[in-house]
Amino acid sequence: xxxxIADARSDAKSLARLFQDNISAAYIxxxxxxxPRAVRAGEWVTDVEDVFFHEIAERLKEPRERxxxxxxxxxxxxxxxxxMLVGLAFVTLSHDAAVPYGIIExxxxxxxxxxxxxxxxxxxxxxxxxxxxxxxxxxLESGIGNESAHHLFERLGFRMISVVMMRET
Length: 169
Known about the structure:
With 169 residues, this protein is an alpha+beta fold. Helix content is 30%, strand content 24%.
């Protein structure tokens, strides 16, 4: 397994396709509803793969071996096994806070590889990178129906600290 920071040498189309092909409507949380990804809870926009592609392409900058210490950053982590793309994560670092923090905005694992520890491997790699960059606090959010992911996050030490609610008129 090779986990690394995606950069300009990475294939944004393959990353977007992996994302789109391995998520369900249960993945949708408030951040998807606040941006261009979802029309409503339980419904992706029709061109969601294109949305993912543009979000990913924007984050693929210069080659980077590790998360930057002391500076804000938005990037993509990719996981390959035997040359095949099997996972990805969107990651943001914010050093401009009372306690610097990182956000694991998205993590997606190929459906055929779920339950085998790949998601945990990616998360632990991200934690190590964040710690090396001076980040000691991590956040994530998840769709309310994404229970298998919730079990992983709880096993990794995450706990609920807030509830997000939405009202539409």
